[in-house]
Amino acid sequence: MSAGLNLAQQEAVNYMQGPCLVLAGAGSGKTRVITHKIGRLIQAGLEARRIAAITFTNKAAAEMRERARSLIGRDAKDVLICTFHALGVRMLRQDGEALGLKPQFSILDSDDVTGLLKDAGGSTDAATARQWQWAISLWKNMGLNAAQAEAQAKDDNEKVTARIMARYEERLAAYQSVDFDDLIGLPLKLLQQHPAVREKWQAQLGHVLVDEYQDTNATQYEVLKLLVGARARFTAVGDDDQSIYGWRGATLDNLRRLPLDFPSLKVVKLEQNYRSTGAILRAANNVIGPNPKLFPKVLFSELGEGEPVRIVDADHEAHEAERAVARIQSTRANGLGKDWKDFAVLYRANHQARVFEQALRKAQIPYKVSGGQSFFDRAEIKDLCSWLRLVVNNDDDPAFLRAITSPKRGIGHQTLTSLGVFAGKYKLSLFEALFSSSLASALPGRSVAGLHEFGRYVNDFEFKARHTSGADDAKVLLTDWLKDIAYEKHLYDGEENEKLAATRWTNVLEFCDWMALRCGGQIDDAAGVTTSSETKTFLQVAQTISLLSTISEREQDQNVVTLSTLHASKGLEWPHVMLVGVTEGLLPFKLGDDNNPAGRADGPMSEGILQRLQEERRLMYVGITRAQRSLAVSWTRKRKKGREMIAAQPSRFIAEMSLETATTKENPREKLKALRAEFAKKAADTVAAAAAAGAS
Ligand code: ATP
Ligand code: MG
Q1: Distances in whole angstroms, Cα of residue 648 to Cα of each of 356, 593, 600
Q2: Which atom of ligand 1 is nearest to 242's Cα?
Q3: Reduced to 3 states, what is the DSSP secondary structure of residue 266?
Q4: Where in the chain is the domain with CATH 1.10.10?
């Protein structure tokens, strides 16, 4: 397992007996250490199923699984390679009953949570609900429950939000549901409060590896500590210069605390960057230079100077997009990039993608928007799918809960709570419980009647779905169904923004057309379960619905240009990268506060602004270091602000790349020597100063 690893990487891979931290800059092979170490651990006799490797996104997990498979072979499939959240799901499915959670609990996504909060807080305004969501999420990440949040509330507003949180938590329990933060918070509670569960997991996991450690939050760190226990067999890899999730509660304290909490921690530093040319790496090092250093690091590349980093200016966004497209085309024409997948366009915020999409489409260049919302993730499509899932599988409690409340049919959470308790007592699914003869004694008559009506409707739907023949039949079934449940009205009632409601309704109609065409055999089954050209009943088509989420994983091999936010680009690399919208106000993104409304570089900076600026700078560093062979950085002379176009300046980070001083070609080894000497001198000075201070 040491082939293709330098000495420092080998040291990290071979050290298996205790806690290990690999701390290094971008592209230095940290993720590679994790994949190789999985192999090394198996080679040393640890069973594959006793290894957990935790990544930051599902995509990163899929990629690591692939890399592990090609390195280790079949054993790789037994290794638990997943995100902290997915690990949380596994722990809760296995042991969540200790916390009162059924194993088939459902997981709410952000839209579901907004809906539930609107309900809990008595508001129809999504923006207000999202503010509550934000505050509650931060509290949960700090490990606070509703009562604790209320006790520490700083003002009335926070107090109100804490009370809404309490009502929200009641609803989660009633619906046997958890939100994303619970996927970390509840496993922590499980490990803290249930020693048997804790011991089981500690015995189960022989080694835990964590990638992108700098972006873990305090709760994740506590989970990690309890999972590894006193033996502390873990490997964390990270880069303090790439910490970009401070706004979501990630804390660099986790890096600071590691050597204190684990005095035997072995720290390995990697110094060679294998990803980028000298020119790109220098621009990256220059940008990150002004940030305070948690740990001094040195990074050099032996890939040669390469092409200089290009700065591209444009009049406005559309012009910038045209120039990006032209650059892609000319790079290909010059034979420097063969495949579309060699190119990435990276930006600060999701909404910036649109003009680039338009320009790429116009030029007929295939692309994908990474991290964008998939059709099947949309709330309205999930609502409809929940009905279909329930029709197919009556035991699907999460689908039951979503269907019965989408739209609301006068069945309140009190009724659902009682139904949940009743179902739990008799070990029935919620749907089975509807038809139990003793339900009438457990719930008021009016509630039972409402539940029965719903149950009968689902049964009736199932009967019809079993007997449709062809697309037209399916279309009638779908149209009747949407009318029966008054779904269009539900969308318009629940959404204050009428335009948004109209878009949602269009999505619904598109979904129905697509389902009908599949019933008629006109569309190949997307999940590859059945072949096209044969008609299917609506029920047969509905049965493949839950397989459709796997489609997104196939995207990986597509030969297309990637459009991605900087956040979603973490850990990835492309031969040719274009950083766009590197314009003051976009990157760094809105820094201003009362003292310095424009957040100007030469204005007074509060501590808060300074910290945000430093995080934006790390984001720029992440962006630059995604590039392997060429990097273009573009900005616009005008940018949108609300509905207006305002004059704009190049980002201060462009100047910080110090490109004009970057023409001298340095010998990397010489540079490394010089940097080491510089650090050694700084360290000696610090020691001398400390000694002098001690003596006086
Ligand atoms: P990031 O900080 O962006 O997450 P990283 O430190 O995780 O980067 P990797 O993605 O592991 O870096 O490696 C960057 C690139 O360098 C990859 O293409 C990887 O295959 C290559 N690489 C890493 N180590 C070596 C090595 N010892 N020899 C050759 N190539 C290497
Ligand atoms: Mg990495």
Answers
A1: 19, 19, 12
A2: 2
A3: strand
A4: 106-175
Domain 300-372+558-665 belongs in CATH node 3.40.50.300: yes
CATH number corresponding to 7-95+188-270? 3.40.50.300
Kindly state the average pLDDT of the residues 635-660: 89
Q: Which residue CA neighbors atom 13 of ligand 1 most closely?
A: 29
Q: What is the pLDDT of residue 255?
A: 86
Which structure tokens are listed for 362?
Answer: 């116009």
Relative to the alpha carbon of 299, which ligand is closest? 1
Give buried/exposed letters for 263-297 (b at 16+ CB in 10 A, else e).
eebeebbbbbbbbbbbbbbbbbbbbbeeeeeeeeb
For the 106-175 domain, the top CATH level (class) is mainly alpha
For a pocket test of ligand 1, which of 5, 28, 210, 570 has the largest count of ligand atoms closer than 8 A to its C-beta?
28
Residues of the chain with CATH 3.40.50.300: 7-95+188-270, 300-372+558-665
What are the tokens at 420?
């949940």
Closest residue (by CA) to atom 28 of ligand 1? 4
- Minimal CA–CA distance to 589: which of 247, 135, 289, 248? 247
Q: Active-site positions?
A: 30-31, 211-212, 242, 626
Identify the CA nearest to 544 among candidates 522, 528, 520, 521. 528
Tell me the CATH class for 376-550: mainly alpha
pLDDT-derived band at 393, boundaries 50, 70, 90: confident
pTM of the model: 0.76
| Ligand 1, CB cutoff 6 Å, lining residues | 4-6, 9, 24, 26-32, 239, 242, 274-275, 571, 573, 625
pLDDT at 685 over 70: no
Q: Indicate the pLDDT class of residue 535, thresholds 50, 70 and 90.
A: confident
The pLDDT tens digits for 294-310 are 777 778 899 999 999 99
CA of 328 to the centre of ligand 1 (A): 25
Atom of ligand 1 nearest to the CA of 273: 16
